[in-house]
User: Fold this.
Amino acid sequence: RLKSNIQDLASGALDAILQLRTITYTLDRAPEQGTKIGFVAQDLEQYFPELVGTRSDGYLAVNYAQMTPVLVQAIR
Assistant:
């Protein structure tokens, strides 16, 4: 009841995921947090623009929680 315009995720998720660059990195503003694993937002945005947003400070941010449905589709 809270969703509209529901559509299946397009096939081809695996092909797009295989193109993604996975990285390790350290945040410049918080190096004490150690090494993290993730994606470059600009890279991810090319394949899954719905997973990338712009923060109030103008920087891009990845919605990692929303990667789960994409990964499930790729496994199928």
In short: Helices lie at 13-19, 41-47, 67-75. Residues 51 and 76 are 20 Å apart (CA to CA).
